[in-house]
Amino acid sequence: MEIQPGVSGRAVLVVDEADTATSLHTGAVPVLATPRLVALCEEAACRAVEPALAGGTTTVASRVQFDHLAPIRVGSEVQADATLERVEGKRLTFTVSVTDASGLVGAGRVTRVMVDVAAFMAKAR
User: What angle do CA 76, 44, 89 make, to 5 degrees?
Assistant: First the structure.
């Protein structure tokens, strides 16, 4: 099956202490950490294309552009949505956004590349 622009994926997270900037050592406040938001967006992107990938194939991150717009407390729920905007050979570009009950938390773009798992792991250092 060929991957087409327009497919989308979603990932949901209830923020836990382990998801905070203090736990991830990226800040001194106990709110949802930016790296955790980015990981949630990547999870949504993976879910968007996973059903269409050939066996032995996966996607890996190659570029992330992201604006973190609002602090989120432990116990809050956030939802990441990823929509595939462009397919250029093996390169997949997604528009991503994260929202909570009050609105937009963050937004940006994630680029992932389709790879053969065995070949990719053979190159891993």
Answer: 160
Give the confidence band of 1 by pLDDT, cuts at 50, 70, 90: low
- pLDDT at 2 (0 to 100): 82
The three-state (H, E, C) secondary structure of the chain, written as one string: CCCCCCCEEEEEEECCHHHECCCCCCCCCCEECHHHHHHHHHHHHHHHHHHHCCCCEEEEEEEEEEEECCCCECCCEEEEEEEEEEEECCEEEEEEEEEECCEEEEEEEEEEEEEEHHHHHHHCC
The CATH homologous superfamily to which domain 8-123 belongs is Hotdog Thioesterase (3.10.129.10)
Report the distance separating Cα 34 and Cα 21, nearest Å: 7
Q: What is the pLDDT of residues 3-58, one digit of tens each?
A: 999 999 999 999 999 999 999 999 999 999 999 999 999 999 999 999 999 999 99
Question: Domain-by-domain residue ranges, the chain?
Answer: 8-123
Alpha-carbon gap, residue 94 to 13, rounded angstroms: 19
